[in-house]
UniProtKB/TrEMBL annotation:
Subcellular localization(s) per the UniProt record: Secreted; Synapse
Coiled coil location: none
Gene, per the UniProt record: OLFM3
Top-rank taxon, per record: Eukaryota
Main location: secreted
Keywords: Coiled coil, Disulfide bond, Glycoprotein, Secreted, Signal, Synapse
Statement: the UniProt record of this protein carries the keyword Glycoprotein: yes
Name this protein carries in UniProt: Noelin-3 isoform X2
Entry annotated with the keyword Transcription: no
């Protein structure tokens, strides 16, 4: 296997403006790149950190690879991580996390030096494991920085005008940066044709790349594409289907126990929108209502392979009074209407099992929203706004107050 560095993209939302590009930008060959982009009107930045991904070598040609690993990757990684420190310095309100992150980077540096000195003493696999583990911890650290509380919704940008009043369109939050396929599912009932486009540009111009004929019709507009599979609610049931776009096969199907369906507990606009499937930074979720919870919203985290419920939270918000809902960083945000004047009115944190009333307006430009879903990769809300496919940007705010909050 070649050592060519593929790219891992990590987004990190900065609380402070004014990152100095000359300080933070280094050439791609040097590895990690840190630069700011997408500055919003409040002066918050989104920083993108591009890092070389760990290549997975086979055990053959062990010594060559080991040398390669040591000379290039480990050493480079070390050099590459050091420029992160000035960026992190700017997270003044995140002092604790910065300290931890800096320590993590310095620890990494020490460990790598140690490994280089003791080159003879390490088995290749052990080295590989240690590098992987360090990377994983850094990635987790970065994830904490990227997550936050919804503060503001801006836009929308109208991407396209097409289809009926009700429908869904989406991209895969787990797809690689280059893969920007769009899926399009018009109408909430009596349809099983999914249209695929290679990019947003192809979607806009109407250059379809594939169509999929699902084995079952769907209900509602609350489908999600996650890690290459489509998850949807099978018509007239509370069965969730996981369908693979690669193989064209149903990989799993399971009834969502007690979940109301077929307009028993839809969103305010109806349309069999009883069961809402969504994905965020944490994983795959189903949002629905049950008789047991008196028609109020239940949030369940799902196993993406088996569709089993891993854990559920019962909220006190009536599903039939919700316009739409979406999940960001484990918090569910619920709008109070699908019509003009709709706003994000309620939020429920699965981390603390607590709710809050919120007042986050957004511009319902075409007066009727039948789908609203967060995409963690794009940090955007995808919406179907009365036959218009629109995107909203979100501003998240991240504060670490205490050690317990990490
Ligand atoms: C979101 O923000 C980015 C960066 O400012 C901008 O390029 C993009 O057009 C915005 N999208 C929407 C939907 O407002
Ligand atoms: C760094 O290493 C020290 C000493 O081994 C350890 O106590 C500490 O927890 C490490 N810090 C991080 C953030 O991993
Ligand atoms: C995505 O799917 C691949 C297999 O196709 C799997 O190896 C990987 O762990 C999945 N990623 C996530 C985040 O679940």
């Amino acid at each position: 296997m070649r050592a060519a560095a593929s790219i891992l993209n990590l987004l990190l939302l900065s609380l402070l403006a004014g990152l100095d590009p000359s300080k933070t930008q280094i050439s791609p060959k040097e590895g990690w790149q840190v630069y700011s982009s997408a500055q919003d009107p409040d002066g918050r930045c989104i920083c993108t950190v591009v890092a070389p991904e760990q290549n997975l070598c086979s055990r053959d040609a062990k010594s060559r690879q080991l040398r390669q690993l040591l000379e290039k990757e480990l050493k480079e990684k070390m050099d590459e991580l050091l420029p992160l420190i000035p960026v992190l310095e700017q997270y003044k309100t995140d002092a604790k996390l910065i300290t931890q992150f800096k320590e993590e980077i310095r620890n990494l540096s020490t460990v790598l030096t140690g490994i280089q000195e003791e080159i003879g003493a390490y088995d290749y696999d052990e080295l590989h494991q240690r590098v992987l583990s360090l990377e994983t911890r850094l990635r987790d650290c970065m994830k904490k920085l990227t997550c936050g509380k919804l503060m503001k919704i801006t836009g929308p940008i109208t991407v396209k005008i097409s289809g009926t009043r009700f429908g869904a369109w989406m991209t895969d939050p787990l797809a690689s940066e280059k893969n920007n396929r769009v899926w399009y599912m018009d109408s909430y009932t009596n349809n099983k044709i999914v249209r695929e486009y290679k990019s947003i540009a192809d979607f806009v111009s109407g250059a379809e790349s594939r169509t999929y004929n699902l084995p079952f019709k769907w209900a509602g507009t609350n489908h999600v594409v996650y890690n290459g599979s489509l998850y949807f609610n099978k018509y007239q049931s509370n069965i969730i289907i996981k369908y693979s776009f690669d193989t064209g096969r149903v990989l799993a199907q399971r009834s969502l126990e007690y979940a109301g369906f077929h307009n028993v507990y839809p969103y305010t606009w109806g349309g069999f929108s009883d069961i809402d499937l969504m994905a965020d930074e944490i994983g795959l979720w189903a949002v629905y209502a049950t008789n047991q919870n008196a028609g109020n919203i239940v949030i369940s985290q799902l196993n993406q392979d088996t569709l089993e419920v891993l854990k559920s939270w019962s909220t006190g918000y009536p599903k039939r009074s919700a316009g739409e809902s979406f999940m960001i960083c484990g918090t569910l945000y619920v709008t109070n209407s699908h019509l003009t004047g709709a706003k994000v009115y309620y939020s429920y944190s699965t981390k603390t099992s607590t709710y809050e009333y919120t007042d986050i307006p957004f511009h319902n430009q075409y007066f009727h929203i039948s789908m609203l879903d967060y995409n963690a990769r794009d940090r955007a809300l995808y919406a179907w706004n009365n036959g218009h496919q629109v995107l909203f940007n979100v501003t998240l705010f991240h504060v670490i107050k205490t050690e317990d909050d990490t």
